[in-house]
Every structure is written in structure tokens, then in C-alpha cells.
């Protein structure tokens, strides 16, 4: 039989798994169970949208079978299964977009991070196995297939035996080493613990065959009844979705586990919101504000959205209509009994009910962020580091229609605080004689501090906001005014400062009478690089500075000039 090679990235990832020093190996079980659950969701959905098919709840489950004698752990499901082509595509290549990005050897060595960034899904099974078999039969094909791999050097595919649709993943568990106890993955009680920890809310029963003993029927009246062992399925998970539970029954750890189990992210969420709305439109939701942006967050590949369930049935895994763009980082799930199951994507877009939910979600996230900003500044700054740019884009996006709502969520670096402040904080402590909200742009705080114009404004004891992101000035332009104060770049030629008191007259006179020629000469030498050369009474320690005549700062002009026309 021909052995096929993994695509190169998969091979690397596989290598990493096989030789993994990652301590949290047990997550492989969560990954396989979640794949099994996804596969059943797909059948479920198919039967709901296809009149000829029925979904009989009892037929759908996940079964785990630890077999000590053969050192195998089998996870089977009655899900949608895979065709030969799907096997090849799904298990021969890493499905995740973005995984191509980790090419450098260094990144490979920092395997831990890769797991954190991308999640590893199916491949994680190689952290605990010498060999993995996937036997699967697609719901759309008669023939089953068997995929076998012993690690990075490749895999084979041959016809398999399964008669009904679903998949059966058999792991040949590694022998114990000094550092790793692999035997535990063959222990029923350990499996039980892992399922409770990571997969308790999976909506399908996760069964495990366990050996039990009972009195033999024919000896039950004897003085010394005989016992016999028999096999029975135990259901390991509670199956009640977390969002159906009462918030006061749940701990932060429950919410965090759900976040992990759902693979919303591999970080720890900063906050969660549990919604239970009754009324014209009843629904429950759990929303998370993640701690870290996903690896593809600031790229075009990122797709916003919440999982949408209709009474416990997944109908969409990324319903974008539920989230405004400026909160696109939010993860979570919405479940409503009042949504029809058969809604297609097109219909969803127009769904009034959905708009109702999304408006509520929008306002609850805003509330949560406001609360965080007011009560836990450190956490809010962490949040802002991760997602502040999205909020900034939100203020000028869509013709600035959301600026009033979003402007108070923004933080900018302050010359006075040496830390981040809100516009509100800035304006509230402005001295009475200060006319403008001053800002200075540059590539870094250190760079900005060196600008001569900065010291001019600082000498007046005015606070300056340091803008280090290209988009910051767009944000100010869109906001226009805050608290009836205009924004003003320190490189503007009209800083609105009171002229310095001492020697003002003299200086100006000198400039007009004596230096006129010198200034002309300077302009001649510099040429068209500048519009004008003039004197100023504002400088103290520096000799010259560049300023602009219009509203734009020099940095902004640079940005605009560097943009494709
Ligand atoms: P992900 O689940 O994030 O897509 P995985 O590596 O876990 O990534 O799985 C890769 C793909 O393999 C899945 O997207 C799915 O198409 C397929 N797959 C894995 N396990 C199963 C299964 N038990 N039944 C059907 N398809 C599966
Ligand atoms: Mg997966």
C-alpha cells in the first residue's frame, strides 16, 4: 500500500506532537470529543434541513472505550463521517488557516505557543499515541475507509469495514516514560474526570462501557449467590448546556472551561456575560471578552460571529449579524427557542428577531466594558491593548456614526500620566486657559518626547496625548471635538498659546527688521521642502522645529502620502 506524505506544515506539526514536551497532553481527548460532536451536529443539521431524513436522538452519541489489554483508547461517533477525499483533505493537511504562518524553526521549538495560537485539533492525538487509526464512513457514501498513521512520516488509506455512518478513532497509547504516565488514559476513572473537566456540556451523550458486576439471576435465591460481570454504558457528561444553567450555580472556572472547550480561544477570557432574556423574544446567551486577539484577528481572514442555536440545535457557528464590527472580538453562543430551525443565511440577515438580540448584545457588551473601565483599570488596559485598535477603527468606520458611543472607550498615552487616559479624564482636568486638546504623533513615545513642539506645550503645563498608531489621527478627525474642545496637533503653526510674556515685543521686532533677510536665505536653501520659514517666541531649549499650516500633523501627512492613491 502506498504511503502518502503529509503536507509540509502538517508534517512539522505532527513532529511537534510526537516529540511534544507540552505538559497538557490530556487536551487531546477534548479535541477528539469536540470533533465527534461537530460531526454529529452536521448530521443533525442535515436531517433538519432535509425532509427525507429523520433525526432519532437515541442514534447519536459518542463512545469512549479504553482497552488496557490492547493499550488502545477508542473514540467513536455516529456523526457525518468522511469520504475518502475528505479524509485526505482534513487529516492530511492542517485545516486551520494561518497555520502556514509558523514556518520558522524558532517557532517550531516554541511548540507551546503554536498550541496556544492555533489549537491542534486532531493532531494532538499523537501526543499520547504511537499510532492512530481513523475508520470512517460518510453519510453520503457506501464505502468506509481506514486512515492509519504512525506519525510524521506519512499515512495510508484503505477500505474499511464500518457499516453505518460515523467515525472511530483508535489511539495506540504510548508506553509510560519517566516523565509521562500514559497509562492513565486507559483508566476509566481518569477518562471520566477528563470528560467532566473539558466536555461536560457536549450536547450528545458521551458513553463509556464499564465493567460492572451483579448477582447471577439463577443463583439469587442461593445462600451464597454467585456474581457475574457484565458491560454497561455509563453516560459521562451532564449534557445540560451551560447557558441553560443559572448564573449563580456557575463559577468562573465553569465559564472558562466552556470557553476552552468551545475553542473560542486558548487564552483566558477577561470577562463573561450571561444573558437570560424572557419576553417577546426569549433567548439565552453567554458572551466572552477574550484576553488575547486570535492570531488572525487583524487580518481579512478573521470572521466575526457568535454560535447560534435554535433551542439547543446549532444552526450557525458564526452568525455575524449578532455582533457589530467594533465588537467583533466577542465570542460566545446565543440560543433561542423562538428562532425557526430552517433559517438560511440569507433569511438570517433580514431577521428582525435577530436584530433585536444583536441590539441587546451590543448594549450589554458596552455596559460590561464601561464597568471594567471604571472598576478594574488594569484589566481594561489589558483589554485595550488587545482590542483597542478595533474600537478606534469603529469610531471612524461607517462614516463615524458610532463615534459618540465609542469615543469614551478609547485610551491614549498621556504626557502627564506616563500612562493611558480617556478623553474624558483629559478634558476634565484641563486648566481653564487651555483652548485645545493637544496631541503629538510619532512612531514611539520616546520619539515624540524629543519633538521640540512637545516641550513648548509641556512648558505651558498642558497635557499632551501621544499618538503612536497611524489610525489615531483619523480617530481625532472623526471625533472632531470632545467636550466642546477641538483637537490640535503640537506641530500646528497655531497652537493657541498665549504669547510668552518677556521680551515679546522686542523679539518680534527683531524678527521683522533684522532677520527678514536671514529667513529668506534659509527658505532659499531649504527650497520646496518647506512653505515658509519664520521665527517664534515659544522655543526654549530647541533652536528649530517643523510645523504644519493645515489641520494635519506631519505624521499624518506622511501616512496619507504613503497610502496608495
Ligand atoms: P478543526 O476541528 O478545528 O477543524 P481538527 O484538526 O480537529 O480541526 O479536525 C480537522 C477536520 O477533520 C475537521 O474539521 C473535520 O472536517 C474532520 N474531522 C475530524 N474528526 C472528525 C470526526 N470524528 N468526524 C468527521 N470529521 C472529522
Ligand atoms: Mg477539532
UniProtKB/TrEMBL annotation:
MF terms in GO: ATP binding; ATP hydrolysis activity; ATP-dependent protein folding chaperone; unfolded protein binding
Keyword Cytoplasm: yes
UniProt keyword list: ATP-binding, Chaperone, Cytoplasm, Nucleotide-binding, Stress response
One Pfam family in the UniProt entry: HATPase_c_3
Compartments, record wording: Cytoplasm
Domain of life: Bacteria
Chain positions recorded as ATP binding sites: 31, 35, 77, 82, 90, 96-98, 345
Gene3D superfamilies: 3.30.230.80, 3.40.50.11260, Heat shock protein 90, C-terminal domain, Histidine kinase-like ATPase, C-terminal domain
Region (A): 1-345
Any one Gene Ontology cellular component term annotated for this protein: cytoplasm
Main localization category: cytoplasm
Annotated family: Belongs to the heat shock protein 90 family.
Record's function text: Molecular chaperone. Has ATPase activity.
Quaternary data: Homodimer.
Annotated protein name in UniProt: Chaperone protein HtpG
Taxonomic lineage from the root: Bacteria, Bacillati, Bacillota, Clostridia, Eubacteriales
Name of the gene: htpG
Amino acid at each position: 500500500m502506498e504511503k502518502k506524505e503529509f503536507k509540509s506544515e502538517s508534517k512539522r506539526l505532527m513532529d511537534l506532537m510526537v516529540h511534544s514536551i507540552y505538559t497538557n497532553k490530556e487536551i487531546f481527548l477534548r479535541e477528539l470529543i469536540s470533533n465527534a460532536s461537530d460531526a454529529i451536529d452536521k448530521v443533525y443539521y442535515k436531517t433538519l434541513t432535509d425532509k427525507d431524513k429523520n433525526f432519532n436522538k437515541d442514534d447519536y452519541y459518542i463512545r469512549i472505550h479504553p482497552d488496557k489489554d490492547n493499550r488502545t483508547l477508542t473514540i467513536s461517533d455516529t456523526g457525518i463521517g468522511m469520504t475518502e477525499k475528505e479524509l485526505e483533505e482534513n487529516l492530511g493537511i492542517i485545516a486551520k488557516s494561518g497555520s502556514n504562518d509558523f514556518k520558522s524553526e524558532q517557532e517550531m521549538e516554541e511548540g507551546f505557543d503554536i498550541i496556544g495560537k492555533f489549537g491542534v485539533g486532531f493532531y494532538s492525538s499523537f501526543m499520547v499515541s504511537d499510532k492512530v487509526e481513523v475508520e470512517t464512513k460518510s453519510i453520503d457514501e457506501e464505502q468506509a475507509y481506514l486512515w492509519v498513521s504512525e506519525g510524521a512520516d506519512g499515512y495510508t488509506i484503505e477500505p474499511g469495514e464500518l457499516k453505518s455512518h460515523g467515525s472511530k478513532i483508535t489511539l495506540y497509547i504510548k508506553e509510560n516514560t519517566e516523565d509521562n504516565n500514559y497509562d492513565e488514559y486507559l483508566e476509566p476513572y481518569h477518562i471520566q474526570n477528563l470528560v467532566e473537566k473539558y466536555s461536560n456540556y457536549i450536547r450528545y451523550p458521551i458513553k463509556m462501557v464499564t465493567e460492572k458486576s451483579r448477582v447471577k439471576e439463577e443463583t439469587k435465591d442461593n445462600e451464597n449467590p454467585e456474581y457475574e460481570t457484565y458491560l454497561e454504558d455509563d453516560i459521562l457528561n451532564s449534557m445540560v448546556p451551560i447557558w441553560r444553567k443559572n448564573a449563580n450555580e456557575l463559577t468562573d472556572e465553569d465559564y472558562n472551561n466552556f470557553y476552552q472547550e468551545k475553542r473560542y480561544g486558548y487564552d483566558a477570557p477577561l470577562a463573561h456575560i450571561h444573558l437570560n432574556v424572557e419576553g417577546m423574544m426569549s433567548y439565552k446567551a453567554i458572551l466572552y471578552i477574550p484576553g488575547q486577539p486570535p492570531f488572525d484577528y487583524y487580518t481579512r481572514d478573521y470572521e466575526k460571529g457568535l454560535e447560534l442555536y435554535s433551542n439547543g440545535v446549532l444552526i450557525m457557528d458564526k452568525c455575524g449579524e449578532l455582533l457589530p464590527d467594533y465588537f467583533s472580538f466577542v465570542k460566545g453562543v446565543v440560543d433561542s427557542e423562538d428562532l425557526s430551525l430552517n433559517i438560511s443565511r440569507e433569511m438570517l440577515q433580514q431577521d428582525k428577531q435577530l436584530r433585536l438580540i444583536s441590539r441587546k448584545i451590543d448594549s450589554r457588551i458596552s455596559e460590561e466594558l464601561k464597568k471594567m473601565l471604571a472598576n478594574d483599570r488594569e484589566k481594561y488596559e489589558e483589554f485595550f491593548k488587545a482590542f483597542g485598535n478595533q474600537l478606534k477603527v469603529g469610531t471612524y468606520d461607517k462614516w463615524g456614526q458610532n463615534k459618540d458611543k465609542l469615543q469614551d472607550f478609547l485610551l491614549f498615552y498621556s504626557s502627564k500620566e506616563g500612562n493611558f487616559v480617556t478623553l474624558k479624564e483629559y478634558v476634565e482636568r484641563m486648566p481653564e486657559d487651555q483652548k485645545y486638546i493637544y496631541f503629538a504623533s510619532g512612531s514611539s513615545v520616546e520619539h515624540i518626547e524629543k519633538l521640540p513642539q512637545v516641550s513648548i506645550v509641556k512648558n505651558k503645563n498642558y497635557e499632551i496625548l501621544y499618538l503612536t498608531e497611524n489610525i489615531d489621527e483619523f480617530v481625532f478627525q472623526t471625533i472632531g471635538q470632545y467636550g466642546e474642545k477641538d483637537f490640535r496637533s503640537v506641530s500646528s503653526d497655531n497652537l493657541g498659546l498665549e504669547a510668552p510674556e518677556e521680551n515679546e515685543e522686542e523679539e518680534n521686532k527683531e524678527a521683522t527688521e533684522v532677520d527678514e533677510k536671514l529667513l529668506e536665505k534659509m527658505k532659499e536653501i531649504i527650497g520646496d521642502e518647506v512653505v515658509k520659514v519664520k521665527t517664534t517666541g515659544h522655543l526654549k531649549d530647541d533652536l528649530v522645529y517643523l510645523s504644519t499650516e493645515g489641520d494635519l500633523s506631519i505624521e499624518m501627512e506622511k501616512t496619507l502620502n504613503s497610502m496608495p492613491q
